[in-house]
Amino acid sequence: MVAAVYAGALAAALFATASPSAHGFMLETDGVFSPPAKNVAPQAVTYDQKLVPANSWISVRQRVQPTGATTVDLRVTGLKPNQQYGVHIHQKTCGADPAAAGKHYQDKAGTDAAHVNNKNEVWLDFKTDAKGNGSASATHSWAFRKGEAGSVVIHSQPGMKGARAACFSVPFVAKP
């Protein structure tokens, strides 16, 4: 089992593609959710299989303009149908423990309402359709700081509510 989880995580990491151009930078990666393993955390880990079943799929695309403006697009398939989810970029990569991903990534760090909102953080809240598919997109005038954004966390409810239902490690890039 550990070998299969490791092979899946390695394969997912190999599918992450990033390409610089005169128009900025783009990264695109996808993964298949697996339950956490004791020894190896998969790139895409589900903590609540009722909301994010094993073998459901996620895709994340990041586009960074030369100015630093950043767009993050999210697509999922196979999640619980007709369910609302909250999604945020977190500071660290995923682990077997849902807390491993750390706090929300913020452009300007803080804990008051001026900092904890969809202008200072990347929020990708969505509702799945009858087949469990969903998508969201967010654009900001700022770019991630190098090494400070490491995952997409799917929460059980939109906004600032809800437990961490799943996590997807993403090698986000900073301004080119």
Give a written overview of the molecule.
With 176 residues, this protein is mainly beta. It contains 1 helix and 10 strands, in the order H-E-E-E-E-E-E-E-E-E-E. It has one helix at 2-14, and strands at residues 17-21, 24-32, 44-46, 57-64, 70-77, 84-90, 126-127, 134-140, 151-155, 164-169. The strands form 2 sheets. Strands 1-2-4-5-8 form a 5-stranded antiparallel β-sheet. Strands 3-10-9-6-7 form a 5-stranded antiparallel β-sheet, with no helix packed on it. It is globular. The termini are far apart. The model is unreliable at 1-15 (pLDDT under 50).
Layout of helices and strands:
Blueprint: H1 2-14, E1 17-21, E2 24-32, E3 44-46, E4 57-64, E5 70-77, E6 84-90, E7 126-127, E8 134-140, E9 151-155, E10 164-169
Antiparallel strand pairs: 1-2, 2-4, 3-10, 4-5, 5-8, 6-7, 6-9, 9-10
Q: Which terms summarize this structure?
A:
176 residues; 5-stranded antiparallel sheet; 7% helix; globular
Number of DSSP helices? Answer: 1
Which residues sit in consecutive blocks of at least 5 with pLDDT less than 50?
A: 1-15
Overall pLDDT score: 86
The secondary-structure class comes to mainly beta
Shape: globular
Quote the beta fraction: 25-35%
Quick synopsis:
This protein is mainly beta and 176 residues long. 7% of the residues lie in helices and 34% in strands.
